[in-house]
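Forum: Protein Structure Q&A
Topic: Joint prediction for protein chains with partners

I've read a bunch of threads here and the consensus seems to be that you should model interacting components together rather than docking separate models afterwards. I'd like to see that in practice. Below is the full input, 693 residues plus whatever partners are listed. Could one of the regulars post the assembled result?
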Amino acid sequence: MIKRLINWWDGRFERRFSAVFPPNFNNPHDENSPYALSLSGKLLLEHQLPDDRHTLLENKYLIKIPAITKKHFDYACNRCGNRVQRFFASWPCGCGGACVYCRKCVQMGRVSCCSYLYIWSGQLVGFPRVERACAWEGELSWYQSVASERIVEAVDGQSHLLVWAVCGAGKTEMLFAGLERAFAEGKRVCLATPRADVVRELRPRFESAFPNVSIVARYGGSEEVDEGAQFLLATTHQLLYYARAFDVMIIDEVDAFPYHADPMLPYSTARALKPEATLIYLTATPRLDLRIRSHLNLLPTVFVPQRFHGHPLPVPVFHASFDLKKRNVPKALKTWLIEKKKADRRVLLFAPTIEKAEKLKGEIPGSISAHSEDPDRENKIRRFRQEEVDLLITTTILERGVTFPSIDVAVLDASHDVFDEAALVQIAGRAGRSPEDPDGDVVFFHDGASDAMVNARDSIRKMNKLAEKGGE
Amino acid sequence: MHCLWCDQEIIKDLNWNNLFQLPRNEVLCEGCKEEMHLLKGPACPKCSRETDEGELCHDCERWGEAPLERNLSLYRYNDFLKDVIAKWKYRGDYILVDVFKEDFLKRFKALKISKEAVLVPIPLSEERFAERGFNQSEALARMLPLETANPLRRVYSEKQSKKSRYDRMTTNNPFTIRTSITHPVVLIDDIYTTGRTLQHAAKLLKEAGAPSVMSYTLIRG
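Posted by a regular:
Agreed with the consensus. Here's the joint model:
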C-alpha cells in the first residue's frame, strides 16, 4: 500500500507532462531532416526555431504545446511545472484577453498563455555507436567494481538506481563502465548536478576519459551551445531546455541544494528522460526521502562505504570555543591555524555566512575567500588548487564535488543552522582525498554541539565500521 | 503574503498602529525595502543628482539653457535596483513594476502637477518593443493619475545602456514627433543617466508647442 502510494507520488511529474505531451507519440517520419541533430530532445521557444518553422510545423516535424494551461481556476506552467499561483502574473500582452506569464522560469525567457513550446517530433538522431569509448586505465577497488557492475546493469535494464557512496569513493570512475556501455549502444547521456562548480570540475575529467564522444557542458553563464552532443554535462536548471532527450540520466549530488527544495528541477528531470530510460542518483548523503525508498526496496541501492584508496574517512574532532560570537577569529582557531602553518599544511576553512567569510579574510593574513557572490570564484579556487595560497575561506558552496588533494578542514561555528548533517558529512569528506595523504584533520569549532554535528560524526563512524567489515 | 522580489514570506509585527487596521498589501519584505534608497537628501534642483548642499550639479551647469526644465528621480541607482530593472525590463517580468508603485505615486502626488499636464512615456523603437513585449515607461505612466499621450516615435538605435558617455552625448535625435502639443508635458522614463534621451525628447516637444517640459524618472543613474 505504502509502496504504491510512494510510486504514485513519484510519478506525478511524469504524469503532468504526459498529459500535455503523450510519451508514446507516434512519429510519422523516417527520412532524415537537417534539423534533427540540433533540435531533437529540446524544448524550444518560438524564437529558437529555424526560419522555415511553418513548413516544419505543417509537416508535423515539430509539435507545439501550450506553455501555460488553465485547469479549473489554476494555471500550470508546462515548462517548469510550476503550479504555485503566486508565481503567475498578468501583463498587457496585446494578445487579447487576460494574458498570464510564469514568473518562476521567467529568467529563461518569458512564456505566457499565448506562447507555445515546441518539441521535435521528426526522426530522432541516431548517435554514433562508440566502441571502447573509455580511455581511462585506472583500476577500481572491490567496492567500486561492485557498484560499477550495478551501474552497467541499470544502463542495460533501463531502471533506476541509487549509488550511495561516501565522499571520495571515486564516484566518477565508477560511472565509466556504465557510460562506455551506453555510448557503445549509441545512447544519449546526461550527467546533471545542482552545482555549476561541480560541472566545471567534472568536465575535464570526462573529456580525457572519453576523447571520442561529443561532450557539452552547460551551466548558467557558460557559452557553450548544445548542437546535439551525445553527452551533456549540465546543472539541473539546464534540463528545463530539454524534453524526451536522454536514454541515461545521472544526477550527481542529488541531495544538494536546490534540487530537493525546488519541484521545478525534478519535474524537468522527469521530462528530459525518454519514456524508457535509466536514472541513476549519486550521493554520499541521501536525504530521508531517498533513504525511505531505498529501505522499502523501491529504489535499488548500491552501497560504497569505503574510499577508493581504502583508508577510512577522517572522523571530525569537536573543539569547543566559546568566544565564537565575540571574536572574529576565536583563540582556538588561531592556535590551530598557527599549528597548521608550522606543519606546512594547507587549510580549507568553512564559515557559516558570506559576511563572516569576508571578515575572516580581513583578519587572517595570507588567506583568500571564495563564495557564491564572488565573481572571481573560479580563479581563486584554481589558485588554491595550484598551491599558490595556503588558506581558502569559503561557505557551503564548496562543501561538495570539489577535490583538493591534501588539505585539512575546519568549520567555524559548526552548530550554525546552515551546517546540517549532510553538509557536515560532505565537508568532512573534503579531507584526506589523495592516496598519498589519506588522513587529514577535520575540526568543528562550535559553542555547543548541535544534533547535526553529532549525527554527522556518528554516520561517518558507521561508514568506517561498515567498510572495515566488508574489507575482510 | 510573499515578497515580490525574494519570495520570502512577509510577517508583520503587530503593534498599536496597525492593530485596528485592515492589513495592507505589502509588496516587498523589510530586507528588500531597505535595499531601495529613496533620494531624500540635498540634490541638484534640475536633475535630482545628490549634491553636497543642494547646489546645481556640474552636468546641469554644462547643459545650461536646456529644453528639459527639470528632472525628478525617485531612487539612487545601486546593484539591487540594477538586478530588479534587469529582470523587469530585459527578462520581461512585468509585474515587478508593483515594486515601485507606492513610492512612485506618492512622490508624484507631492509634486502637485497641474491637472492640465499630460504624461508622455519615452517610447521604444518597434524592434525593441517586439523584443520586450511591453514598454517600461508606459508601464510606469499607467500607475499615475494623469492622462497619457504618445506623440513621439522612436527610430531604431543601439541600446543606451551599451554606449559610452561620449557616444551618448553625440548621438542624433532618435525621436520624431507626430502631433502638436498644447499642454504642459511630464516625460516618464525609467532611468536618467546623462539626460541626453530626455533632452532630445523635450526639444521636440517644445518645438511642437508644449509650454513646459519636465521629466519624472524612476532612477537617477
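The domain at 40-220 of chain B is CATH 3.40.50 (Rossmann fold).
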